[in-house]
Design goal:
Blueprint (H helix, E strand, L loop, with lengths): L3 E5 L17 H10 L15 E2 L5 E2 L5 E8 L2 E4 L3 H14 L4 E6 L1 H9 L1 H9 L2 E4 L2 H9 L11 H12 L4 E5 L4 H12 L2 E6 L8 H14 L3 E4 L5 H9 L7 E4 L3 H5 L8 H5 L3 H8 L1 H23 L7
Helix pairs in contact: 3-4, 3-13, 12-13
């Protein structure tokens, strides 16, 4: 079991302008995040320039970002924590060179990528792919990344970034029925600069709609576009629109929109921190999630076992 190092060079309805944490469990973890040991930036020991972090993330003086990673069923997962994510995103926004895609991949995404090569290709081509789930943190540590203590969970990544940065960046919320409501809540709660929202679109998107969406987003000139379509649609959207936009960062977070808007309840903190959120979600949405957890879950465990034992390769 060996980790990898990825180097990412630079590149890669109507709209309305405008957080209540709401969802159970997020407030209880605010203090946890604040007390987390953040990766301390230090000078690159080899060049004396640039920036490196205790997590292994290196931001070179040239702007190139090097992020350690490992593979799960052929999907590349970056060995990062939320403070690393915030620092990398901040660098990309300040640098403003290219459009960068941030994905969230957990058990479900890695499982889907096995049977959908196009999804796996998009996940592996993302500039940053966060370990979104307890199984990913366990596997990260098995691969030698002992600093990965907690998951970089989509709703938590979103909540922490918005809370910590306030009005620093310009945000656009796309592709969820609560986009507009969420934007208003964030403005009240944190002074977040919401420059635009776009509601749940028709799907699949016809070309005329794609042109319209791109024009709306470009006119708003955000620093970050949050995409709430859910996997795998949001990955497809981000990679399609990478060539249509000049926004520094696109982040797919799925149901995080609903959690932060208070439309969906999250599991209690103790369940989240101990890898039991799947059970809470299944108990609340059995008709929608039974196959994901009762069928695909055991298959994921079996396949990971084969991969770790060297009995099967997923590529």
């Amino acid at each position: 079991m060996y980790g990898e190092v990825d180097r990412h060079a630079n590149g890669g309805g109507a709209a309305r302008t405008a957080w209540d944490l709401g969802a159970n469990g997020i407030k209880n973890r605010e203090q946890t995040i604040k007390e987390e040991k953040f990766s301390k930036p230090i000078r690159n020991p080899q060049t004396g320039q640039g920036e490196s972090m205790s997590s292994g993330v290196v931001i070179a003086e040239s702007g190139e970002v090097t992020i350690p990673s490992f593979r799960v069923l052929g999907a590349r997962i970056h060995a990062v924590q939320i403070p690393d994510v915030l620092r990398i995103v901040d660098h990309w926004i300040n640098e403003r060179k290219g459009v960068h895609i941030v994905c969230q991949t957990g058990m479900h995404g890695a499982s889907e990528a096995v049977s959908h090569p196009k999804l796996r290709e998009m996940i592996n081509d993302a500039d940053l792919n966060n370990p979104d789930g307890a199984p990913m943190t366990w596997l990260a540590r098995l691969h030698g990344f002992k600093h990965v203590k907690r998951r970089a969970y989509g709703p938590e990544v979103m909540g922490t970034l918005l809370r910590e940065t306030g009005p620093k960046y310009k945000h656009f919320f796309y592709g969820n029925r609560v986009s507009e409501e969420l934007g208003r809540m964030l403005t009240r709660k944190y002074g977040t600069r919401v420059v635009g929202t776009y509601p749940l679109p028709i799907w699949p998107l016809p070309e005329a709609e794609k042109v319209k969406i791109a024009e709306v987003i470009e006119a708003a000139a955000p620093d970050i576009v949050w995409v709430g379509l859910g996997a795998p649609r949001q990955e497809g959207f981000m990679f399609d629109f990478r060539s249509r936009l000049t926004v520094p960062v696109l982040i797919g977070v799925g149901a995080a929109f609903d959690f932060h808007a208070g439309k969906l309840k999250q599991a209690p903190s103790w369940m989240q921190e101990n890898g039991l959120e799947w059970f809470y979600r299944f108990a609340h949405e059995p008709k929608r999630l039974w196959r994901r957890y009762l069928v695909n879950g055991p298959i994921f465990v079996w396949n990971v076992g084969l991969e770790l034992a060297g009995l099967k390769k997923f590529s």
